[in-house]
Structure formats: C-alpha cells, structure tokens
Design brief:
The chain is an alpha+beta fold. It is built from four helices and seven strands; from the N terminus they run E-H-H-E-E-E-H-E-H-E-E.
C-alpha cells in the first residue's frame, strides 16, 4: 500500500509546537538509543533549541502535522555541524517521526521539505549520525543521496550498553 501523505502538512516549526516537539523527542530519549540524551526535557529547556532554527538561513526546523488536527507527526532539522567557523558550510540533519506515524512517508516528506528549503543556502555538505542498528534511517538517508562514510564503534552508552553510530554525508 502506498504511504498516506495527502493529509500531512509540512511547514516551519513555530513556538506553539514546542510542547508537542518536546514530547516527541522525549519518547526517543526515554525509549530508544536513537538519541544519546538520557534525561527527558521540559519544554522550556528546549526553547533555545527551537529558537535556533529560524524560518530562513541554514538552520531550519520543518514540522509534519496532520492537516486536520495539527497533531505533530514528526520533524526534521538542519543544525550546525561543529562550532568552528570553517565548518560553517556544513550542517547536521536529523529526522524524528512520531512512533505511531511510521511507514507513512513522513520522513521522506520532511527531508524533501528540508532540502528544498536549504537549496538556496551557502551550504556544501550535510551530515547525519545514525545510532545503530537503524535500517529504516539508513534507507531514508540513502534515498536522499547520503552515503555511509564511517562508523564510530561503541561511542555512546545508554540503557546499560554501548552503541555504534554510523555517519552519512551528502553533497549540497
């Protein structure tokens, strides 16, 4: 069955999304090794993160929402890759999809919107870090032209075990 996407709206994230975005992220903090954060956040603690992704420029936040209910189904970001000035034309990208919204093409919609928004920016490369194993994320990144460039072995410890992180790179 093809993904159901007609009822999904992708738009810039706004301050009114903060609680829903925090709740979505906290699911991954509490339940998965996808993020290496280990303690859930309060929405006010995530406000600086949200505000660091304006509607224009290289650091964007795109939100997928149900067109009728406006329920947040996922989000994608581009963020600074590293703090040093020479990295300024590189971004790190990420996608989080609500656990009950998987398999609907939400990640594809989000990345399409994000990369369309970044097309006019002075950017050279996008990087993505994917905790392993995560075959679905690997497939999503490959679909968007990312290639695997290496894996950090046992780089993070969460839930009492060590996790590998695969790095992907995409020319922009």
């Amino acid at each position: 069955m093809p993904p159901r996407t007609a009822e999904v709206q992708v738009r810039p994230g706004v301050e009114g999304d903060l609680k829903a975005l925090t709740d979505l992220y906290n699911h991954y903090v509490r339940e998965t090794p996808v993020t290496f954060d280990t303690e859930p956040f309060a929405p006010e603690d995530r406000r600086p993160w949200l505000l660091s992704h304006p509607e224009d420029g290289p650091y964007r936040l795109r939100v997928a929402a149900d067109a009728d209910s406006q329920e947040i189904l996922g989000y994608a970001t581009s963020s600074p890759y590293r703090a040093k000035a020479a990295y300024g034309t590189s971004v790190e990208t990420t996608v989080y999809v609500a656990p009950d919204a998987g398999g609907r093409g939400i990640g594809t919609l989000l990345y399409t919107s994000l990369f369309d928004a970044l097309a006019g920016e002075d950017l050279h490369r996008a990087y993505a870090a994917v905790a392993q194993p995560n075959a679905a994320s690997g497939r999503l990144h490959a679909r968007f032209g990312f290639r695997h460039v290496g894996t950090y072995r046992e780089v993070g410890r969460k839930f009492g075990r060590y996790w590998d992180v695969a790095w992907y790179e995409k020319p922009l």
